[in-house]
Amino acid sequence: MHERWRGCCLDLRDQPEQLDTVLLWLHAEWLKQRTNSIQNPAEAYGLRRIQLQEHLAPSVVPLTLIAKETKSDARPVLGCVSLAHLASASPLASAEFNQALWLSNLFVTPTARGLGVGAALLRAIEAKARDLGQTEIYLYTQSSKAYYRSKGWHECVIKSAADASTMAPAITVFKKQLN
After folding, report:
1. Can you give the residue ranges of every domain in the chain?
2. How far is CA 139 from the centre of its chain?
3. Which positions ≥6 away from 71 have C-beta within 8 Å?
4. C-alpha separations of 155 from 51, 78, 119, 152, 177 in Å
């Protein structure tokens, strides 16, 4: 078992120069998982950039945290996680979920996996949500279910893809009660 990672989680707004690094990670992950998407990768990259730039605005959410060894560390960022409202175009959009906060974009670099960076990012984003008065937050995933279960998340909805002809896997929604 690895020792608990002792770095820090910082708001991307405080280190906006890291936006391109985070953007490249998230786009690369999307490219790996886009089995049935017809969206042009260059257009998707541009839209993702616009969405991530919104995380630099002074509003409370959306927000992205990044993981670094120290605040002033010049070494590369180790991971990220975001907190936002559900996109209106989401297949999960509903009265139940639209006002909730959603965890997204959890990513840890391959060299930092297994060190506790992801767990630290989750704890930090959960603390941010609590600070915002939230009693629960959600996430959806098609993979990594065991990881989220191990971190105290519970499945609350499994929704099939709206169009069965796309062969898209079911979307599992997880919820975490914040104490």
Report:
1. 8-177
2. 8
3. 8, 10
4. 27, 28, 18, 10, 12
Looking at CATH, the fold of the domain delimited by 8-177 is given as: Aminopeptidase (3.40.630)
66 has which bridge partners? Answer: 10, 80
In the predicted model, is pLDDT for residue 91 greater than 90? no
Specify the pTM: 0.86
In the β-sheet with 154-159, what is the strand arrangement from edge to edge? 8-11, 63-68, 79-85, 101-108, 136-141, 171-177, 154-159
- In three-state secondary structure terms, 167 is coil
What pLDDT digit, counting tens, does each position of 138-174 carry? 998 877 899 999 999 999 877 665 544 555 566 788 9
Which residue is associated with the tokens 């820090």? 8
